[in-house]
Specification:
Largest sheet: 6 strands, antiparallel
Number of strands: 16
Distance between the termini: 22 Å
Order of helices and strands: EEEEEEEEEEEEEEEE
CATH architecture of the largest domain: Roll
Radius of gyration: 21 Å
Oligomer: single chain
Strand content: over 45%
Amino acid sequence: MTWFSMKVSGNALRPGNIISHQNRIWAVVNTQHTQPGKGGAYMCVVLRDVRDGTKKDERFRAAEDVERLFIDESEYNFLYQDGTHYTFMNPETYDQITLDPALFSVSADFLQPGMMVKVGFYDSEPLFVTLPAQVVLEVEEADPVVKGQTAASSYKPARLTNGLRVMVPPYIEVGVQIVVNTEDSSYVERYKEGDKLRF
């Protein structure tokens, strides 16, 4: 796997960037440019350690150099789960890797057989696994539809085939397929054949 790094100014950081800071490798989760009344501007940055998932708030001044890492991402196919670990295969080389769910961008509960994910490597070490932003799941359990209720009515709880619980509109019934945001487990819409999902 190839990778390289370069120095960038603190105010150039953006969500999704990978940086080396204090001898650890971090993913930039969120950034906010701040201009105080006195002193120079700085960037408030929320960082997540790509190895253990811990988060840290940091401030970088515009004049401060930060080492940004540029990492190759490869697509892998999810094969199976073995205990607490998950095995993936590179569809081009057929190489298999087994990864800990701590590297996943969202809950491993969203993994489905054959699902394509993106794995980022640094110096041959897998750093993170990016799952699709949206998945299609079937409603396994939900309160029955009440006549007269509309989409404007309050949402109701439902359990999906992967075991997760989400809030859905009152007209969603058992057996219906829905689109779910993996980041916050929120309902997006009823799935229709041919709908394009976000990765």
